[in-house]
Amino acid sequence: MASTLAERILELKELKGEKLAVAFRKERLTYRELADTMLHMASALAELKVEKELHVLCTAPSKPETVVAYLALGYLGATAVLSDKNSTPENAFALYHDSGSSLFLTDLKLGEVPSDVRTASLKTLYKNARAAAEEGKEPVLPEYTSPEPETLSEMIFTSGTTGKPKGVMLSYRAIYTILHNTIEGIGIYPDDVTLVPLPLHHSLALREVRAILWQGGTLVLQNGFTFAREVESNLDQFGCTGMVAVPVSMELLRTQMQDHFYEIIGRFRYLEIGAGALSVEQRKRLSKNLPNTDLNNTWGSSETGGVLFTKVHEVAGNDARVSTLGYPVANAELRMIGEDGKDAGTDHDHPGKLAIRGRMTTSGYWGMPELTAETLVDGWLITNDLCYADADGYIYMLGRSDDIMNIGGEKLSPLEIENIACEAPGVRECACIGVADPQGILGQVPLLFVAPDEHYSEEEVRKYLAEHMERWKLPVEYRTIDALPRNLMQKLDRKVLRKMAAE
């Protein structure tokens, strides 16, 4: 029985050899072709001295060559380090050194390459592997041995909230657990055809790729998410049943598809929306207009994969539960740790830092022993997210601990204001931060950034908020902005907002 994704692909070659495994535009790979190309890619990498536990950096365009290289590295027992296809040479070389890599698979225009950086063309390796597989050649491979569960499988580099790159280390056991959590949490089936229009170096995209391939479904890749025509084209061409997305991309698609959005997106059996929570307004609107699509909002991280899953249709009509992060997967233990180090999180007024324990968690941060020791305590992964749980075990987030405002001694989550303000008339999207009280009395006061639509009126929004929240929580200042600042994965960047507020 397979314990790694590479082993599973070899199983599926025998079970579903002629089924379509990976598609990108006009390119197709059946499971037989995927397995054979993986082995020939592994053979070529072995010639380049890639072996067990060696780290290999790989630029990750959303194309089949990335999937094949990822699987081939897994087959050899090497550690895959996937990187942004839009990296600058400077950043790419820095990541090569930071990750301890000994080979860089890329087709980036690098200019002058440092003498200690070894490179190879990903496109050429893939093209040659495809040709060798089609010709029926026999790959020359080292003797295969299944890796030990705690062996390092891959590293995902993330800047997190500090801006300093962190190499999240994931073992084969963690990867195996994460992919099964995704399958069970979302409900992914062998007959699913899943569209992944996200960069493949990001953990959300990787989770979906692993899950659909493990199930023997069909993976459809798309190089860029904002092209609504390509989404519709892939739906028509491949009969896609599922798609993974981020919240802001759903809004971009809605803007581009206009009146046809719900008709087109409603053709998907399921959506997984991760890398951020849908707003209360989005949950209610999508649930109402997509009654036959299984809407899943996933909370997770590079360190854990998806851990909390929200079935949006089940909570959208419940005002007390509509803002939940979700319910934890069966094999994840969760607790909230208060400032005194004891369990907290039993209600809104007593939140604690979310802590997670399970076989899916990272084994630490590459080359960062102090951060690893701070984050992993007695088997628990300590996050910076302030959360609480209701009586039924649903988890709610108040925000990251450094985002919580202190209003005259009262703690206030920006999410509490945002969830109400996003439903106010004329507000397309909004974000709240705490700023110094200009009167020097309360310490901090809320400032609300609003991306308005054509019907926006500050007076009307002030009136709406005054009718829906306590007086002390009301923003004292409103600023309009064309669009909220976001990072590469379209998550809200509050650091930029704080800089803007200080200007």
Provide an overview of this structure.
Helix content is 33%, strand content 26%. The longest helix has 17 residues, at 31-47. The chain has 16 helices and 27 strands. A hairpin with a 3-residue loop joins strand 13 (294-301) and strand 14 (305-311). It has 503 residues and is an alpha/beta fold. A 9-stranded mixed beta sheet has the order 2-1-10-9-11-12-13-14-15, sandwiched between helices. Strands 6-5-3-4-7-8-19 form a 7-stranded mixed beta sheet, with helices on both faces.
List the helices and strands and how they pair.
Layout: H1 5-15, E1 20-24, E2 27-30, H2 31-47, E3 55-59, H3 64-76, E4 79-83, H4 89-98, E5 103-105, E6 119-120, H5 122-134, E7 152-158, E8 166-171, H6 172-187, E9 193-196, H7 203-214, E10 218-221, H8 228-238, E11 242-245, H9 247-257, H10 261-265, E12 270-273, H11 280-289, E13 294-301, E14 305-311, H12 312-315, E15 327-328, E16 333-337, E17 343-344, E18 352-357, E19 364-365, H13 369-375, E20 376-377, E21 380-389, E22 395-400, E23 405-407, E24 410-412, H14 414-421, E25 427-436, E26 444-452, H15 458-468, E27 477-480, H16 494-502
Parallel strand pairs: 1-10, 3-4, 3-5, 4-7, 5-6, 9-10, 9-11, 11-12, 12-13, 26-27
Antiparallel strand pairs: 1-2, 7-8, 8-19, 13-14, 14-15, 16-17, 16-18, 18-21, 20-21, 21-22, 23-24, 25-26
Helix pairs in contact: 1-2, 2-3, 2-5, 3-5, 6-7
